[in-house]
Amino acid sequence: MRDIETAYAEVLAELFSRADFEVRRPRLPEAFRLEPIRCLLERLGDPHRRYAVVHIAGTKGKGSTAAMVEAILRAAGYRTGLYTSPHLHTMRERIRIDGELIPPATVVHLLERLRPEIAADPALTVFDILTAMGFLAFAEAGVEIAVVEVGLGGRLDSTNVVSPAVCLITALSMDHVEILGPTLTHIAFEKAGIIKPGIPVGTAPQAEEAMAVLRRVAAERGAPLLTLDGWRYGPWEISPAGQWGEIRPPEGSGWSVRLPLLGRHQWENAALAVLAALQLRAQGWSLPDAAISEGLARVRWPGRFEVLREEPPVVLDGAHNDASATRLAETLMEVFPGRRWGLVFGVSADKDATAILRPLRPLVGEIWLTRSRHPRAADPAALVAAAVALGLRARVRATVAEAFEEALASGGPVLVAGSLFVVAEARETWAARGGMPMPEVDPLPLRVGGR
């Protein structure tokens, strides 16, 4: 009989042998279709209809917000599911039950359960299958409420088959333009696709171009559109160890909160998570004030302004577009003022390296250009021109581990950014040095993204 480790490796090989849109990306949103996953879930008995769902779309912050909502629900005593993407080290991070990664044996069981249903449908993508696995895992585990993060876009994303209790849309900015469209209006339209008739949808503050789309779609579908207008949220104190501050809705006393995630933008995500909790409370879910404070205080979301060492500082952040890089730069200046950083940098081939580097340039002394093991990673030699044009002295290194070790040896502050895949490999290198417990890493080098 095969051992579980071998069986799990075979499952991964089988999954990723299928067409993967993170490796071979289509040019138009219409290349995505919901019909295959709808039919698959129907054959499985519609497991996604056996529990309540909070559905979250957005460009930045949707993963952090999902983690916060799930932490609040778990602190209130509910059995929770959390479905997110992409992952850092192991595919099992995408499917969590009560905060724990599903074990390899469960992954093997799920694919054995799914295999007869997916064999006859070549239209199913890797992300379709992973989404179905997550929904089935939640149903079989008796999850009461699941927090589901959109993989890419919203309207045609595999997750958009759920019937949510609450929808959330985090901050929108330009990303995946080759798929979602060339303007913020196009992107907002795709994200607004998760809005359901009559279901409340909460939104972070948006540019007017995007907000106009959300207002129109919500009005067309009779969905109450809830904003953070009139809310007070933000920090009193920020240190490398975390943030302390308040979240106060227009009505009520609000909460004093310790937030482990760094960056002022995380208060916007936290306020949106609280908005979702209040909507669920209005629907009859028992979510005491203490559960909201406790959940936010306990949330973890690695790879997002993650401080590995305070002195000299080592920071990892998966910033991969200009908006997220701007927030990263602002947070670096606030948490570690006056520092000059050595930057370990790699991006996916479809990203605008110059746009990401530009906000970071005033803080960076030298740069190590590298690539992750992901098949879509850009050749670091192709990034040299972007770095040099910004006045950076660039070094090219073949692997993240080599670049990160060399940056650490320089003795100064080190920042790793540009891609979550690069961040993941830096975390693994740091763990190998004894700086943290070694994360569980899948036996295959291939990492897939959100869709």
Automatic annotation (TrEMBL):
Enzyme category, top tier: ligase
Enzyme Commission number(s) from the entry: 6.3.2.17
Entry keyword annotation includes Nucleotide-binding: yes
Mur ligase central domain residues: 56-277
Protein name: tetrahydrofolate synthase
UniProt GO MF annotations: ATP binding; dihydrofolate synthase activity; metal ion binding; tetrahydrofolylpolyglutamate synthase activity
Protein family per UniProt: Belongs to the folylpolyglutamate synthase family.
Reactions the enzyme catalyzes: (6S)-5,6,7,8-tetrahydrofolyl-(gamma-L-Glu)(n) + L-glutamate + ATP = (6S)-5,6,7,8-tetrahydrofolyl-(gamma-L-Glu)(n+1) + ADP + phosphate + H(+)
InterPro entries for this protein: Folylpolyglutamate_synth, Folylpolyglutamate_synth_CS, Mur-like_cat_sf, Mur_ligase_C, Mur_ligase_C_dom_sf, Mur_ligase_cen
